[in-house]
Amino acid sequence: MALNDDIRLLSSVPLFRELDEDQLRLVAFGAERRSLAESQELFREGSPAEAAYIVAKGQIALYSADRIGDIRHQKTVGPGTLLSELALVTMVERKFTAVAASDAEVMKINRQLFQRLLEEYPQVGRLIEARIRENIAGLAKAAAAMGHRFR
């Protein structure tokens, strides 16, 4: 895929939507492309997350284990979906297993690349902080809406 296509893909992802072209170019140039055949695993639940992935082509199925160890399909995602975004800022464990539901392609953004973006463009940190705050507020709202299930 051409660099301009990668920039266009990045600009469609909410976390990167407000970045300017130079900032997007830095990420696109430093990101790695990975092709997956249908049924190929991208990563496994519980493994260390050193990078985030953006689905560029195809579909990725997400699975997680329940309390007794049964594997459950959570959802299937497509192009423009950012997987494991917290891995961009801190070491975390994968919360699900990601498997190609069709032939797919992903863009890998490692933590070092993301930190380089923040170092070269400090104003991006403020944008990212605002986006994370929005995400946390959304999670809190969703949890509050489910409160009746836990009474």
TrEMBL record:
Q: Any idea where the Cyclic nucleotide-binding domain is? A: 15-135
Cellular component terms per the entry's GO annotation? cAMP-dependent protein kinase complex; cytosol
Which CDD domains does the entry mention? CAP_ED
Give the matching InterPro entries.
cAMP-dep_PK_reg_su-like, cNMP-bd_dom, cNMP-bd_dom_sf, RmlC-like_jellyroll
Q: Name one Pfam family in it.
A: cNMP_binding
Q: Which GO terms describe its molecular function?
A: cAMP binding; cAMP-dependent protein kinase inhibitor activity; protein kinase A catalytic subunit binding
Q: Which PROSITE patterns match?
A: CNMP_BINDING_3
Q: What is this protein called?
A: Cyclic nucleotide-binding domain-containing protein
Query: Species name for this entry?
Result: Aliirhizobium smilacinae
- Lineage of origin: Bacteria, Pseudomonadati, Pseudomonadota, Alphaproteobacteria, Hyphomicrobiales
